[in-house]
Amino acid sequence: MNTRTVSVLTPDGTPLATDVCLPDGDRPRPAVLIRTPYGRDAHRAELRGWAAHGFAALAQDVRGRHGSPGEWHPYRDHERTDGAATVAWVRAQTWSNGEVVAVGASYAAYCALVTALDAPGAAPGPVHREGVPDAVIAAVPALGLTETAREPGGPERLWARAGWWAAHGDRSDSDPDALERALADDPRLLEHLPVARLAERLATGLGRELPSWPRLWADRQRGRLVALGSAARLPLLAVGGTRDPFAEDTVALWHGWGGPARLLLGPWGHHLTADRSAPARARVNLGALYVRWARAALAGRLEPTRHGVIALGDSGHWHSTHRADSPPETERRWPFGSPTGLRLLHGAEFSADPERPVRSDDLAVPVDGGPADRCLLLSPPLPRPLDLAGAAVARINATADTPSADWAVRLTALDPSGRADPLAFGIVRRTGPPGEAADITVPLGTLGRRLPAGTRLRAEIAGHHFPAHARNPHTGDDPVTATRLAPSRRAVNPRGSALHLPVVARRRYVEPVPEICR
Question: Span 508-512, mean pLDDT?
């Protein structure tokens, strides 16, 4: 195999630095294309792996990043047009057989998707649509400005966006440790208000301006790619992790896709790495899986259905979902205030004070008799192991004395020794007349876990989850522009409130790779 760097011209003449790794031999090959803002050099081993399996493999720096000139504006239209131009260039090469698979993770998954969806309804086959790939592999996709900046329920993802913008925003290269250094200089950096002007504080520690920061919060339209995907006919492999903050976007993309769609949801975070203590059977060779799936997709061997697999934590067992012959999930209800559900420990009435918010980076809960800052509930020990696979939700009847209130629900699994392990989280924003009781639904994401016998479930209901999320000021003002904070008195009514978890009713496990590639 051989690797070389070429320049691929975009419609406006911008040359994009592209590494091309070709297998040995002269016959035309299918190609995989990775377009990334994180540096094409990081994909050299991946390119060689694809080439070793007979694919022409390309990694390209998007415009304005690393080896490619121009200005980079995250999530702008140039990713779509530049991707289409690159696909067309690939197909024109003598080493190409015309088949192209767009591949990417995180922002690179966005690049792959907008290229694949440039012409909705594009179909794989011998007649290729200009600039549109034949299949797409989207891992931990970061689907857009709004999806990455805000939760589906409204609250702003402060920590993740500040870290990403500090590392990658408004610069041609990356500085992964930028936010940590800025926080070392100013530990209360993320507390400064308004959030819209946080870039001015960051600029001091970073030594550069972040002019694109305000635009991040101005975009509020979500679901554009998911909507386009409903008209797509090309195959999709959506890969995510139950511990990834964008897991629900991965599931939504898969669920709404119009063509053959596969979901692989493992016990991973955003980097798709397993816990080192996990058994070997809990790990998946993603590179080998991608190759096998790409071959099946290009050959038209995938069933024209939507199905996938969810890992049951680090147990090594996988649950099939959305197939007619897959084991069903049943919703099990844990009512609040019940000895057999979730017993109320304290905080049926509590104060959500943005000056002293419940923190996202601390799993400890208050044990003294001071004023409550959250509602705290605990289940009895599980009498037997429990497999969870699917969507979880908390439904609460609650009251706030302020016109705007965030409701954060954090679910933790406590093993028999008392060790706490995060299980699920959700947060929504509700506006309404102060003091009016409301039924509030808080989605807790898609779970994939096996809970051993003796596990207790601990639920916390709070008004903040800081610094992962910006603080709701409780004044009715936009949290991005607010400069004044006020406490909010809360009450949770156990009657009518409950936790709903997806329990696998019948255990029948599958092997993930064959299930994904059928």
Answer: 90
